[in-house]
Design a protein that fits this description.
Strand content of chain B: under 5%
CATH architecture of chain A: Orthogonal Bundle
Largest interface: A-B, 73 and 81 residues
Order of helices and strands of chain A: HHEEHHHHHHH
Shape of chain A: globular
Number of helices of chain A: 9
CATH class of chain A: Mainly Alpha
Strand content of chain A: under 5%
Strand order of the largest sheet of chain B: 1-2
Number of helices of chain B: 9
Largest sheet of chain A: 2 strands, antiparallel
Distance between the termini of chain B: 44 Å
Shape of chain B: globular
Helix content of chain B: 55-70%
Mean pLDDT of chain A: 86
Strand order of the largest sheet of chain A: 1-2
Oligomer: heterodimer
Number of domains of chain B: 2
C-alpha cells in the first residue's frame, strides 16, 4: 500500500500533504486532550503504533509501484478514534521509511491520507453504526479492521490514478486497473487481518477488559459479560 | 526481516559523527531535486552518487545497500509497467483495446514517462536510504525538538519508538517458542499461531510499556524526556562535499531537463 519515495509527481505529493496536515493537526489536539486526562492510555498508544508498524511491514509485491500488506489500523480506530489514529499512523509511516525504507517522505502525505485518514474513518463509521446494536463485538471489530484495510487500498488506487490517468478513459480507467491489481492480494489480506485483529481483541477482553471499559470502546456490561464468558470457559 | 533494521546499521556507520542537519540537507535536498526533475539524468546521478557515498564514505556493506534496493526496484519496475501501458502517445509500437474505456499501448512517450518515474523513484529511494542508514532516530529526536514540533507529538514518537523494540522482543521470543511446538505447520494452524503471536505479543508489550512509563514517572517524568543531544560542529570537508553534490545535482536538473530516451519525444 505505501507509495514509494519518488513515485508520485511533486504536485501530487504536495496536494496529499496539504490534505493530511489539517487531519494531523486535529489529531494532535485530540491526542493532547487524551494524554492530559488519561496518561495511562500512553502504553496502549505505543503498543497500537508498534503493532501497526509490524503488521504493515509484512509486505507482498503488487503490480502498482506499491505493495500489499495488512494495515493494523482498525484496532487503534476502535480504541482511540480516527483522528488520533491518523497521528499514530503518520509516526509509524515515518519510522517505516527510516527503519525499513518502506514508503517515503514526500509520499508520506498520500500514505497518511490513505492509511491514517480514509481507512480509519470508514472503519470508525462501521464501528459507530454497530457499537450499540446486538451485533457481536468481535464481528464488529472484524468488520472495522477488514474495511479499514480495504478502503486504504481503494484510496491508494485513486491517488495513483489521479497522478497517472490513462490516455483512454482517464482517471476512471486507470483507477480500475490499479484497483483490479490490488484486489488480487488485498481482499484475502483484509479478511485475514480482520480475523487476526478480532482474535487480538479477544485476548484484550480476556486479559485487560478494564482498559476497554475506561476508554468506552464498548458498553461495560457487554465487555464484562464476554470477559466472564471466557473465564468460565477456561 | 526484523533481525536487523536500518536503525542498527545507522548506529555504527562511518558518517555517524557528521553533523545531523548536514546529512538531512543532503538526503532531503536529493529527494526534492529528484521530484522536480523533468529529465531522467539528474535522478539517476543522485541515486548513483548517494549509493557511492553509502558504500565509500559511510562504509556500509555494498551487499546490504544492494539488498535494500531490490524490493523498491522491483516495485518501481512493475509499477512503471502500468504507467507505460496506460499513458498512451503517438506512433505506438503496440496497441490492445480490450474494453471501450480501456486501451493498453506502448509508445515512445509512455516508455519515456515510465523510465523517468523509475529513475525518480530510484533517486528518491537512494535519498531516503541515505538518511535512514546514516542518521539514527535518536539523533532525529533532537532535530524534532529544534523544529518546535508539538511536545505531545515528540512524546508519542518516542513512546512508539521504544514500544517497537519491546514488541519485537516479545514477538521474536514467542515466535521461536511456537516454531519449536510445531506452530505454523498447516494453514489453519498458521492462522491460530499468528493470532496467538499477535495477541500475546500485544499484551506482553503493553505490560512492558506500562512498567517502563511507571518507572519513569517515579523519576518525575512528565512527558518530556530530556535528551542531551550531542553537538557535532559542521566540519569544512563534509560541508564542501555536500554543497558540491547539491550544486552539481541542481545543475544537472536544469541542464538535462529536456533529455529523453527517444530523441523524437518533445
Amino acid at each position: 500500500m505505501h507509495i514509494m519515495e519518488g513515485f508520485l509527481p511533486a504536485t501530487w505529493a504536495v496536494v496529499w500533504w496539504l490534505v493530511a496536515l489539517p487531519c494531523l493537526a486535529w489529531g494532535i489536539i485530540q491526542l493532547k486532550r487524551l494524554i492530559e486526562t488519561d496518561r495511562e492510555a500512553l502504553p496502549l498508544l505505543g503498543v497500537t503504533g508498534g503493532f501497526i508498524f509490524i503488521l504493515s511491514a509484512l509486505k507482498l509485491p503488487s503490480v502498482t509501484g506499491s505493495c500489499s500488506h495488512p494495515t493494523g489500523t482498525g484496532l487503534s480506530t476502535v480504541c482511540f478514534g480516527p483522528w488520533i489514529t491518523s497521528v499514530v499512523c503518520a509516526v509509524v509511516l515515518l519510522f517505516q521509511s527510516l527503519f525499513l525504507a518502506h514508503g517515503g517522505l514526500s509520499t508520506m502525505g498520500a500514505n497518511t491520507v490513505s492509511m491514517g485518514v480514509v481507512g480509519p474513518l470508514v472503519g470508525y463509521g462501521i464501528y459507530r453504526a454497530l457499537k450499540n446494536t446486538k451485533v457481536n463485538m468481535f464481528i464488529t471489530v472484524f468488520l472495522v479492521c477488514a474495511f479499514a484495510d480495504l478502503f486504504t487500498y481503494v484510496t491508494t488506487s485513486l491517488q495513483l490514478a489521479l497522478a497517472y490517468p490513462a490516455e483512454v478513459g482517464g482517471v476512471f480507467s486507470s483507477f480500475t486497473v490499479f484497483l483490479g491489481i490490488f484486489a488480487v492480494t488485498q481482499i484475502p489480506l483484509a479478511i485475514i487481518e480482520g480475523v487476526i485483529l478480532a482474535l487480538v481483541f479477544k485476548y484484550i477482553v480476556q486479559l485487560k477488559p478494564e482498559i476497554l471499559v475506561r476508554l468506552g470502546v464498548f458498553p461495560e456490561a457487554r465487555v464484562m459479560a464476554a470477559h466472564r464468558g471466557f473465564a468460565n470457559a477456561a | 526481516m526484523f533481525e536487523e533494521i536500518l536503525e542498527d546499521i545507522a548506529q555504527r556507520n562511518s558518517l555517524r559523527e557528521v553533523n545531523t542537519s548536514l546529512k538531512l540537507a543532503v538526503g532531503l535536498g536529493g529527494l526534492v531535486l529528484c521530484l522536480v526533475s523533468t529529465g531522467y539524468v539528474a535522478p539517476l546521478f543522485i541515486a548513483l552518487a548517494l549509493i557511492a557515498a553509502l558504500v565509500l564514505l559511510a562504509r556500509i556493506d555494498a551487499y546490504t545497500v544492494a539488498e535494500l534496493f531490490v524490493a523498491p526496484a522491483i516495485f518501481a519496475a512493475t509499477g512503471v509497467i502500468v504507467i507505460v501501458l496506460t499513458s498512451g502517445g503517438v506512433d505506438p509500437f503496440w496497441v490492445w483495446q480490450p474494453l471501450s474505456w480501456l486501451s493498453l499501448s506502448v509508445t515512445p512517450e509512455s516508455i519515456d514517462r515510465g523510465f523517468l518515474v523509475f529513475c525518480r523513484t530510484l533517486g528518491g529511494m537512494a535519498s531516503l536510504i541515505f538518511i535512514a542508514l546514516t542518521t539514527p532516530m535518536t539523533d532525529l529526536f533532537g532535530v524534532m525538538r529544534q523544529c518546535r514540533l508539538p511536545a505531545v507529538l515528540v512524546e508519542l514518537v518516542m513512546i512508539i519508538y521504544q514500544t517497537i523494540f519491546l514488541l519485537l522482543d516479545h514477538l521474536v521470543l514467542i515466535y521461536r517458542a511456537q516454531l519449536m511446538r510445531l506452530g505454523y505447520s498447516s494453514p489453519g494452524e498458521w492462522i491460530r499461531s499468528f493470532s496467538t503471536l499477535a495477541g500475546a505479543g500485544f499484551i506482553g508489550a503493553w505490560n512492558a510499556g506500562e512498567d517502563l512509563i511507571r518507572a519513569r514517572e517515579m523519576r518525575c517524568y512528565d512527558g518530556k524526556l530530556v535528551i542531551l543531544g550531542e553537538v557535532r560542529p559542521v566540519a569544512a570537508r563534509p560541508l564542501l562535499t555536500a554543497t558540491g553534490f547539491l550544486a552539481l545535482s541542481a545543475a544537472l536538473v536544469v541542464l538535462t531537463r529536456s533529455i529523453t530516451v527517444f530523441p523524437t519525444v518533445p
